[in-house]
Amino acid sequence: MKKSAYIYIIKISFLFTALYLFGSCKKLIEIPGNPPTFITKEQQFADSATAMSAVVGAYSYSQGKGFGYSDANFTVATGLSADEISVTASNTDYTHFYNYMLTPLSGGIVSLWQYPYQGVYKVNDILEGVSHSKGLSQSFIRQISGEMKVLRALYYFNMVNIFGGVPLVTSTDYQHTARFPRASVDEVYRQVIQDLEEAVIDLSPDYPSSGRQRPNLYTAKALLSKVFLYRGNWKEAYDAADDVIKSGIYSISDVAVHAAFLEGSDEAIWQLPVKNSYRQTDDAQTFVPSAGVLPKYLVTPFLLNQFEKSDQRLQHWVGVSIVKGDSFYYPFKYKNKQASSLPLENLMIVRLGEVLLIRAEAAAHLHNLEQAVIDLDVIRKRAGLENSIIDKTSQQVVLNAIMKERQLELCFEWGNRWFDLKRNVTIESSASTVLGDEKTGYTSDAALYPIPQGQRQLNNLLEQNPGYN
């Protein structure tokens, strides 16, 4: 990568950070239009080689500098809010997620807002750069545009489920967007769907580089199936998931439970490579304790009790630490803390197991219960379990079985359990049963996290979520 390309990326990151910290000043910080040590945007996107340096930056697994979810905070926060994990430390921001005591000043919510918006800025910058370039081929522009729209859709999908309606920023004109009000939930979802549908048109079934780090056509369709599922568009969710499953590119039956998150997994639809030279995923760094040390986060007895004894997911995705003769269980989907540990693990963003469960749920809502159970049993077979013995004539029975399978298959992944509880309106009963009387304090307002106070000080048009004023 050319040194000038790095300098450009650093300039953009510095500019965004400066605006974030000082945006409330009466006069915005003045940055020279083209200082002699920086290259212009036109130079950055003059050809495919220099443009790719910016694209690589958007995917880089580096906290606050590239991909917007590279610090495991998303997994921790949503796992604590749901019924997956508890925290052993006391008087920390993370106990607030567990006990539903978040405030606008809670530090744990800052990165859930700040890092995705930094990622959105990078995406918008690349979209503008390639669209205005005269030196790039139309095929290259379509490819990069499609990839960036998938990435932007992922950010907004997660933010709308965490915070509700958020400002929709689709340009780099910070003087205009810095004081955007919150868009409605429907408006955010419309943008997400638009981005993904345009990406489906722009992207090819082939991955644009080795591995599955950069999205292809089916990455967009997989995310689109999830969005449609959340919106209750069952036919559209089924069709999008069906296209991914029938593409022939991905496999779950040939991937053992313990190998699902490895680099090169046939189940992977989209995964990012190791973080840097001294660690792999931050999920492993966060959850896996040293030998004989009490884990910082424990799998709840509630979740442990949902697994059947012979379930391979319990054996391989839940770790155990023996401390003074007692067993403590922790999330263990990602096992390798050191970069040199083999085999390499990649951060999984989308995988076939989830898409199968999406098709199953959509099929059940469409009263195609036979297909729903078939998909459910594919997941169970990979986990080493017998086929489901359920009443295939009862839609509710089948849906209940699917939701339980989602709880087990997708635990500690992308807030799926937290979002499932909210969209199925079962969270109040769940919160009252997890760990007996220990997990209390849930109200309907806790379904959304508060907007960080610092953001509202920068932009007084941001209305706070109910219950946090």
UniProtKB/TrEMBL annotation:
CDD domains: SusD. One of its GO terms (cellular component) is cell outer membrane. Pfam families: SusD-like_3, SusD_RagB. InterPro entries: SusD-like_N, SusD_RagB_dom, TPR-like_helical_dom_sf. The chain crosses the membrane at residues 5-23. It is found in: Cell outer membrane. Residues 319-468 form the RagB/SusD domain. The keyword Transmembrane applies. Residues 86-229 form the SusD-like N-terminal domain. SUPFAM superfamilies: TPR-like. Keywords: Cell outer membrane, Membrane, Signal, Transmembrane, Transmembrane helix. The keyword Membrane applies. Belongs to the SusD family. This is Glycan metabolism protein RagB.
